[in-house]
Amino acid sequence: MLERHHLNIIRAVVEHGTLTKAAETLYLSQSALSHTIKKLEEQLGAPLWNKDGRNLRLTQAGERLHRFAQNILPQFDHLEEQLGYYARGQSGLLRIGMECHPCYQWLLKIVAPYLEAWPRVDVDVKQQFQFKGAGALLAYEVDILITPDPVQTAGLHYLPVFPYEQVLVVARDHPLAAKDTVQPEDLAHETLLTYPVPVERLDIYQQFLLPAERSVAAHRTLETTEILLQMVAANRGITALPHWLIREQAAHLPLACLRLGNGIYKHIHLGLRDGERQVDYIDGFIRIAEGMR
């Protein structure tokens, strides 16, 4: 019968390359590890490794088992972690994944009231997901994904919690600042400043410029919101950002916000695994987020 320790073994051997190192990691003797592997291969009726000198190379059966271990072991780890919080008198750890730069500023408004309402829940924010948040949810690396662009995936669902308009932002003395609304052709000679995001994930391209078969004179990327806005205020370029972000974070800067065509309207979504809203502290986070409209 296939058991969890078998999955730990195959993961350790793949990670470390040799039985000796894998045995050390698992606190087993090499002979005990070899015996366990041989017995498992007999049970399965298929070899899992071929020897390649001093190293081991997975067979097709071994590769399939390793992929399964990579998927299922994080779920075991996540469950044990959560049960550990309960055992210590805590409610849990809410792990939040971020898929957009401005969303972090929105999240900051949620965290303080959430921590006050849930004193036994800790929050951890992970921002390293470069638009692979759905995979992180399915792999139990995060519990909630914050994204403006939900990817419909089996086993996940998304809740729209915060509506906003994406607007063009220019310096207050920029020639375009005299307009209330801009059209794609108005940007033909402009330098567009954005976060380092693929063009296919930028609304100003996908919903404004490309449908009109237009573009800008130049496109540059910047990592941080603060520097991006300072560059726009200094007339080094223009940008497109949520209107709420400009109202709340850049009221002190000489900036103007203009509607993009007929308007680009979006929502911040919360993505979660099916059935997990019934977890009290996850539902609590969603309720606070919905109340921040």
Automatic annotation (TrEMBL):
UniProt keywords, alphabetically: Amino-acid biosynthesis, Cytoplasm, DNA-binding, Methionine biosynthesis, Transcription, Transcription regulation
Localization terms from the record: Cytoplasm
UniProt GO BP: methionine biosynthetic process
CDD domains hit by this protein: PBP2_MetR (cd08441)
Any one GO cellular component localisation term in the record: cytoplasm
Record-level Gene Ontology MF annotations: DNA binding; DNA-binding transcription factor activity
Pfam families, alphabetized: HTH_1, LysR_substrate
Main location: cytoplasm
Gene3D superfamilies the record matches: Periplasmic binding protein-like II (3.40.190.10), Winged helix-like DNA-binding domain superfamily/Winged helix DNA-binding domain (1.10.10.10)
Occurrences of domain HTH lysR-type (ranges): 1-59
Superkingdom assignment: Bacteria
Annotated family: Belongs to the LysR transcriptional regulatory family.
Protein name: HTH-type transcriptional regulator MetR
Taxonomic source organism: Cardiobacterium hominis (strain ATCC 15826 / DSM 8339 / NCTC 10426 / 6573)
Upper lineage: Bacteria, Pseudomonadati, Pseudomonadota, Gammaproteobacteria, Cardiobacteriales
